[in-house]
User: Which sequence fits this backbone?
């Protein structure tokens, strides 16, 4: 049952990811990317990371993808304005990424197998455990992340202004 | 009963590698800068998936906390990147990365 669910979600994730790259219309690409993120969130649920699945859907599908969609609609990009590479560049891109896949799969094929930790703790993905880890061991990185977000916000506003004196 | 007991970690490794390669393909294949951004997001998500898989298999919540930080960095990156793209579009009226070649000295 779980195995079939894994197959199904992996198939969806890979197919939608390919559609992101191959579809002609940028709006379709964004919508396929949202579907890919939903498939990945399904994988998180399978892996007992329920809180992370919820955060993933809220942050990626809810916030980041809406930002992408907003920019694409603001710039009025569609199938006609879409620039295309020549067929040779496309073929070489496909060959290069195929070779990368070959190298990565070949190097990971004989990787040592890890089995699930024993005793296995099914509650590490719950918000209580994550909060304990985040606010005890990762308190300083958490604060630094807030500075990063502030910097990004100020930077985006400055870049968005018409004339910077 | 969860995926951890029935599915070997190698399958998650393979899935993440395939998703990451699709992201690389997108960066090489397309000329629209927004699609290239989306492919970078795809690569980040492949890595996130692998971090969550390892954290679940090893019963260690540090990996999942790391995914939070990656999400925060991705959100910051997208906000600044799309702002840069908007100002590029204001100057050159397109999001084609070939138009950025005049940044060469």
Assistant:
């Amino acid at each position: 049952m779980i195995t079939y669910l894994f197959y199904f979600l992996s198939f969806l994730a890979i197919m939608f990811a390919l559609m992101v790259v191959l579809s002609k219309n940028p709006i379709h690409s964004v919508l396929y990317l949202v579907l890919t993120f939903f498939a990945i969130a399904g994988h998180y649920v399978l892996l007992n990371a329920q809180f992370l699945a919820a955060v993933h859907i809220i942050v990626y599908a809810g916030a980041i993808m809406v930002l992408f969609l907003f920019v694409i609609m603001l710039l009025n990009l569609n199938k006609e304005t879409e620039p295309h590479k020549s067929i040779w560049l496309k073929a070489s891109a496909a060959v290069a990424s195929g070779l990368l896949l070959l190298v990565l799969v070949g190097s990971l094929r004989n990787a040592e197998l890890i089995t699930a930790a024993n005793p296995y703790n099914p509650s590490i993905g719950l918000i209580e455990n994550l909060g304990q880890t985040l606010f005890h061991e990762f308190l300083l990185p958490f604060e630094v992340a807030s500075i990063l977000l502030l910097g990004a916000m100020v930077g985006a506003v400055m870049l968005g202004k018409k004339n910077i004196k | 009963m969860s995926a951890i007991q029935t599915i070997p970690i190698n399958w998650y490794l393979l899935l993440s590698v395939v998703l990451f390669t699709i992201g690389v393909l997108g960066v090489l294949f397309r000329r629209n800068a927004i699609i290239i951004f989306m492919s970078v997001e795809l690569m980040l998500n492949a890595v996130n998936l692998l971090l969550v898989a390892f954290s679940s298999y090893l019963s260690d919540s540090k990996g999942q906390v790391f995914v939070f930080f990656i999400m925060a960095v991705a959100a910051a990156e997208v906000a600044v990147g799309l702002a840069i793209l908007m100002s590029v579009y204001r100057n050159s009226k397109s999001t084609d990365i070939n138009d950025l070649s005049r940044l060469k000295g």
About this structure: The longest helix of chain B spans residues 62-92. Residues 8-94 of chain B form a domain with the Helix Hairpins fold (CATH 1.10.287.3510). Chain B has a mean pLDDT of 87. The CA atoms of residues 16 and 46 of chain B lie 5 Å apart.
